[in-house]
Amino acid sequence: MRKVVFALFIFCFSLFLTPYSFGYDVLFLGNLSEPPGEVALSEAALVVDLGGHELSDEEWFQLATSRDNWWVLPSFSELEERFPLLEQFSAAGIPIVATDSPTPEPVPTFSSFLTYTQNYHTLAALNLIQPSSPDSLAETLESLEAQNPDNIVVVGGEDALSLYREELSPWQEKTEFINREELSADFVQVSTLPEKPVVLFFYSSRCPECRKLKNEITPPVFEKYQDQIKLVYLDYMFSENYQKLVELEEAWQVEKTASVEIFSPAGYLIAEDPSTINQSLESFLEETIAQFEAGKKKVITDLDQEGESLILRRFQGFTPWVVAIAGLLDGFNPCAFATIIFLVNLLMVLGHNRQRVLQVGVTYSLTVFVTYLLLGLGIFEIWQTLSAYQLISRVVYGAMAALLLVFAVLSIKDAIQYRKTKKETEMSLGLPKSWRLKINQYLKQSFSQRRLIVAAILSGFVISLIEAGCTGQIYLPTIMYIARESAYRLEALPYLLLYNLFFIIPLVAVFLGIFWGSQSQALVQFGRKNIFFSKLALAGLFLLLSAFLWQGALA
């Protein structure tokens, strides 16, 4: 079965890499007095059945169930007179499109519109049953706008079509209107829906550099060619997209991967440098379009394994040390660093004892570990696709960057003030003792030890969930795929644990460095003797972290 499925994939993919296929055929049927020939049906990718037939219920049912990809767009009279048959169609898995007319009784399986996709090109079909208020189309129009199909077919009587032509004007150039009242007897029409060369843009939603390339750097180039290409964005943190990426990497023998990879019938483009990508991208798109127009044929060779096998082979080539190093390198996360530095310093400034600071820091670090483990298992996968994810991520990054910038300014102010007065008690970041006692008393009354632990857990969870640091483009996605989709998930789990363990090592090192440094009498005495330079060094750290966070907020 897997070989059959993969053979179909190779066939479909060869269409993608064979740009002489400029479209796919959709067969429209209506007012039939007898079933059409088998040849006409077999050559169509999709059959759109407009009804109005003189066929018996049995003949129509056999015709509609004779093949896959058959849609029925009934007329208003058929909704009234042949509704039981339409219910049978729905029960048999045949989609029924009834856009703007109530059926005799609620039927959830009837759709207001349907979409069909082949080679990433989408056709949407609407069936206007009777004239009614355009308000009845509001939800359908919103869905169309969200899906942005390449072609739209609208079927209906003249009154209905004239009423809705204005409502559908945003899609006028790619919309075909079929007047049901003008259909001839035994109406058969084959429409070839045009295709463009497909460009697949693979990126990671957890990577700020990827998002910057996708949302800010490359759009001007893609907009220049938007009428000549079909651009598809694929987040490879999703298993099905990662599998497709690996298949394409194997097909094109990609040796060096990157955070962003772009494929087309002309080949591939590996992109990471914002300063050079657009020049390379424009040449890449020109070559893609030229090959498509020339009808050049691109064929996959030596690809005899499906994506899951390729990913498994890649996974089996991993070693524990390689995975550990990948996790360690990916663990340099300025947002998490900034949070734990802020928490620990705040607790120490407010006079909390060593044990309390240690408990909060350990709790925060463990929460980051557990949250990233759950992310690796796909528990919060859908969250990262939401627009709210990127918005909240930017807001948090920006807020923390601004706060650290304020701290940096205050540290510099303290250094200058100490240089002039030699008085430590007037430090902006070192609160006066009277303030510290009052605030500490308030916090002890308001925040018990349990509440501080809860706060550490919540902050660690939220920061980890919205943090968008780039992950290893080979190791983590591969391990995540095996852990989620493969029968080898039990073998992948130790690697995922190892990766995340080393991922939090930089965070733990930062925490321990601050914690033990604050407890070292030698460092404390050195800081007191060198307050001016200590404050400047602290300001430099705040500025560095703030710069990293601003980069994440703007990406």
Write up what this structure looks like.
This protein is of the alpha/beta class and 555 residues long. Helices cover 55% and strands 13% of the residues. It has a 4-stranded mixed sheet with strand order 3-2-1-10, with no helix packed on it. Strands 6-7-8-9 form a 4-stranded mixed sheet. The radius of gyration is 31 Å and the shape is elongated.
Task: Give short descriptive properties of this protein.
555 residues; alpha/beta; Purple Acid Phosphatase, chain A, domain 2; 3 domains; 23 helices; elongated; disordered N terminus
Topology of helices and strands:
Blueprint: H1 2-16, E1 23-30, H2 38-42, E2 46-49, H3 57-64, E3 70-72, H4 76-81, H5 83-91, E4 96-97, E5 110-111, E6 113-118, E7 121-128, H6 138-147, E8 151-156, H7 158-164, E9 175-179, E10 187-194, E11 198-203, H8 208-217, H9 219-224, E12 230-235, H10 239-251, E13 260-264, E14 267-271, H11 277-294, H12 307-316, H13 320-330, H14 334-349, H15 354-376, H16 387-421, H17 433-446, H18 449-466, H19 475-485, H20 489-503, H21 505-519, H22 521-529, H23 531-554
Parallel strand pairs: 1-2, 2-3, 4-5, 7-8, 8-9, 11-12
Antiparallel strand pairs: 1-10, 6-7, 11-13, 13-14
